[in-house]
Amino acid sequence: MGKLDGKVAVITGSGRGIGKATAMLFAQEGAHVIVNDVDSIPADETVKQIEAKGGKAVACVAEITKPEQAQKLMDTAVERFAKIDILVNNAGITRDALIHKMTDAQWDICIDICLKGTFNCIRAAAKYMMKEHHNGRIVNISSVAGLMGNIGQINYSSAKAGLIGLTKTVAKEWQRFGITCNAVAYGFVDTRLTKEKEMGSEVAGEKVGVPKKIRDAMVQQAAGAIMQPEDAAKPILFLASDDAQFITGNVLNVSAGLYM
Fold this sequence. Notes:
Rossmann fold, globular, 9 strands, alpha/beta, seven-stranded parallel β-sheet
């Protein structure tokens, strides 16, 4: 038996990185997964990989910054699998710059995707998750940047700190519905957002990544430990499972000593 047998999980930003690894792990543990991304190609590829291993999944392309599309995502889950047990708010983005050089656009896109998008999804899932009045799970993906701040990331740090406040509020409001809400604050995870910027990819028309000098320093501070998305998915599985039924309103620090 899997830890999530019979559960239905919606995972935002699950075409790549931590989200994809989480979708794959959840499916392996018996969940039916709604794979969300703004790009159909990685979303469809994740679904194919899940199905190839005998799992069940469906792709849903949606921009969670738009309330109506966040609602479409939740509606799709219920239309296909009849309910929502687990919501993992993983979608995120970086747009790094020092405060005095940051543009409104750089600020807005981080707040919109990391914070507002999470709010949109939780609000959209409310009527389904509250109705079930069961052991529902919400896991929000934060960062140690939201706990300690980070140079060049005023937008990202603010959004991730906001997620922590959001997490604790949802935990208090939804406890009576049998729904837990927790956050995971990661340190350095090897994804396209943390590759060397000089070698990085483009997201929404802008190159992402971390300058090599800063990346090397972060890895050294974390005792040389570079966490892979597959490693990062395991704490999410724990918080989404019945093993965490008495845990709510908490922030799990998974940073290999980057913050302690």
